[in-house]
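for the writeup, i need someone to sanity check this before i put it in the appendix. the sequnce is what the collaborator sent (i think, or maybe the updated version? ugh). structure was predicted straight from it, no edits. if anything looks off just tell me and ill rerun, i have time this weekend
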Amino acid sequence: MDEEYFLKHYADDELKTWWDAASLAIRKQILDLLTGLHATPLSQLDQFTVLLHANQPDGWRGSRLVFAIRNNVAANGQATGNTICLSLALNPHGITASVNYQLNLHQPGEIRAATANELLRLLQPHHQLLQVTVDGLVQRRVPPRRVARMPCEYENKAQAER
């Protein structure tokens, strides 16, 4: 993913605000990370920003970009219960990820923190396991047969409804 695509076709206002505050090195890191994540089965999940998603092992208490099944019937646009597989801390000083146990990469109930540099190396050997997990989540998606959305698509939909 390059900067132009990120800003014009992927990012919502929250991500654009984060982008403006981040250094060039951190910006490059998020683009590389998203490119790598979009080459995994996680790209089949909805991707959206959430505010103040606390209690993550990386300690970041601010907004996050999550890969999950979005609950489109909830007024606040949260994830459907037990579907957040990955959340990226939108800290302009460094990206960390929380990898949830739904991905079956570690103990049930555990959430593991990883730096941006570790994350793709952590996920690479588990491609088939990721696919099985994502397939299970996508099959339970309501409404069925909906294509995964990116952050800017949620924002555009909300603006159209106003």
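Residues 71 and 80 are 5 Å apart (CA to CA). The chain has a mean pLDDT of 81.
thx in advance!!
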